[in-house]
Amino acid sequence: MSKVRLNADRRKLALKVFEKNFQDENNVYKQKYYSTRQQVDRHYENAFLTMKSIVERTHRPDDITTLQSLKKRYGDRLDVVRPDTCFNVQVEDKYINEMEWADDDDHSKGKVKKTIKGWFPFKMNKWHDSENYHYRNNDSTNMGYRFSFAYHHDHLKKMECMPEIYVRQKNKENNPYKTQHEDKCIAELGIRSDNGGLANDWANKYTLQLIGTGGCHERVMPCSRDEYDILMDWQMSRQALVQSYEVWQENIIDRTNLVEKTIKQYNYVDDVLELAKASDVELQASDLELHTTDVALYNPKTVGELLQSMKPKEKETRADKIARVKSYQQSTIVN
User: Fold this and answer.
1) d(Cα 73, Cα 88) in Å, to the nearest integer?
2) Cβ pair 148, 182 in contact under 8 A
3) CA distance 303 to 273
4) Rounded to whole angstroms, what are the CA distances from 142 to 10, 80, 272?
5) Based on CB atoms within 10 Å of each CB, which residue in 88, 130, 134, 259 is the most buried?
6) Gap between the Cα atoms of 35 and 46, Å rounded
């Protein structure tokens, strides 16, 4: 019996099987990712409780209740309570021991206590800034989106998205392929939509009421050093998740690329099956045949149905469609 030769379709099918196996494989990188993800959940809850305590010291709940009652009585003139998910905090001087130059260019002015401050957003696609009070929806490294995609890897994969797009496009300039998959993940998470979705549910979970009509950049709230450290631990956990996720996915991509280069050199299906066996990958010859285009096309029934569907047809009128549906329903009842 002659050997079955490989073709482009069989190579693609084989590569998909290898990649799926690598994704499903329970190795140390995957375990590290899921462990880090659990830590992120704990840090998020701890950080939010800490931020709630900071906020309520400055924006007292009883004052907020009073203002909301006054708004009902007097209308929008007293509409000064706003929900928010991003918060600026600064450590009070009494908690700071570190010193810094009052003027980096003129040391004659002596040293003062170091300013320790930060902007902390709870939305999934926002990223913390400890240097300036400004929005960082996504900096040049796309950290906000990288975290969002990494955290929701399982969901995005089920929806046939590519959450590892930033790993695949590492060190590459923006391009249509990258933008296409990035936008698909963003849309699936609802990041750019106010009409629900995972991103909206996430934001609602971490929303607090504050007094003031300005943006979060105008509201700097005092905190202790311990509180600030809790918030920083939370941000470090987000960074750790991105790192563990990208290490896991980069390993999968590297192995898949090696398989792709290897099977390009093979001529027969048996060679791929031998590689799969040596790599502990479950792959059968039937995996490369059942859905292959050229095999299906040689099936007389399949080709006949395809040719029938390709015949030029008159556009079906509304009356024809109604008649066809009724005929089908009657035949179903009879049977």
Assistant:
1) 31
2) no
3) 29
4) 36, 33, 38
5) 259
6) 17
Three-class secondary structure of residue 119 per DSSP: strand
DSSP β-ladder status, 220-223 and 208-211: unpaired
Highest mean pLDDT among 89-98, 227-236, 302-311: 227-236
Mean pLDDT of the chain: 84
Other Cβ atoms less than 10 A from the Cβ of 141: the count is 11
Residue bearing tokens 């907020």: 64
Beta strands in the chain (DSSP E): 81-84, 86-91, 99-101, 111-113, 117-121, 208-211, 220-223
Which letter does DSSP use for residue 7 in this model?
Answer: -
Query: In percent, how much of the chain has pLDDT > 90?
Result: 55
Q: What is the pLDDT of residue 142?
A: 87
> Can you tell me the distance from the alpha carbon of 82 to that of 35, in angstroms, rounded to the nearest whole number?
36
Residue 148, CA distances (Å) to 28, 36, 100, 166 in order: 22, 14, 36, 12
Give me the count of residues in the chain.
Answer: 335
Per-residue model confidence as pLDDT tens digits over 228-247: 999 999 999 999 999 999 99
- Report pTM: 0.79
Q: Which two tokens stand for residue 92?
A: 């009070």
HEC readout, 81-104: EEEECEEEEEECHHHCCCEEECCC
> Residue 17 pairs with which residues in a beta bridge?
none
Enter the tokens of residue 132. 């300036």
| 125-144 confidence digits (pLDDT tens) | 998 875 544 444 445 578 99
What is the average pLDDT across 265-275? 91
Please check whether residue 119 is in contact with residue 128, taking contact to mean a CB–CB distance below 8 angstroms. yes
> How far apart are the C-alpha atoms of 81 and 151, rounded to whole Å?
32
**Closest by CA position to 198, among listed 159, 249, 224, 246:** 159
Dist CA 249 CA 246 (whole Å): 5
- Would you place residue 321 in the very low, low, confident or very high pLDDT band (cuts 50, 70, 90)? low
